[in-house]
Structure formats: structure tokens, C-alpha cells
Amino acid sequence: MAKGLAADDLRTEPEDVLVTKLKEAKEELFNLRFQAATGQLESHGRLRTVKREIARIYTVMRERELGIVTVATDATVDAVEDDE
Distance between CA atoms of 63 and 31, rounded to whole angstroms? Predict the structure, then answer.
């Protein structure tokens, strides 16, 4: 995945950042759909990419809700990086 949001990157973000990114992605999707409806859309692949980004954000939020994945703290991230 060359562009866009990776799930691993999203898992390290706090909840409020995820909500902000979700809102921005939904606004972009709305604008892309509007452009597609009016025939002004140049990159149809971007629609698919934005939909996938929204799905990734929802997945990470749901994982946290279920307790499958917790938010990594800075100390945990630093410890993991030091081990490598």
C-alpha cells in the first residue's frame, strides 16, 4: 500500500485523531461522489481508496471497543523499538 492510511499507523493514533481522520475521509468521499455525479471526477480509483480508509478507521475503532487491540502508549512503543 503505497498511499493512504495503514492499519498499523492508525492503531498508534489516539481516539480523537481517529475521529478527526474519519470525519475528513467522509467529507472527501462526499465530495468525490458529488464530482462523480456531475461528471467532474478525474480519478475514480480515489473513491475506492477513500472507502477503504474509512473501513480501516472503523475497524481500528471497533477493535478498541471490543478490547482486541489497545492503544499503545509512548512507553510501550519505545520499548518495542528498543528491542528491535
Answer: 28
Cα-trace Rg, the chain:
16
Residue 74 and residue 25 in contact, taking contact as beta carbons nearer than 8 Å = no
Please tell me the distance from the alpha carbon of residue 40 to that of residue 47, in angstroms, as a whole number.
13
Say if residues 26 and 54 touch (Cβ distance below 8 Å). Answer: yes
Ordered per-residue pLDDT tens for the chain, 84 residues: 446 788 888 899 899 999 999 999 999 999 999 999 999 999 999 999 999 999 999 999 999 999 887 776 554 555 555 655
* Cα–Cα dist 70/7, whole Å: 13
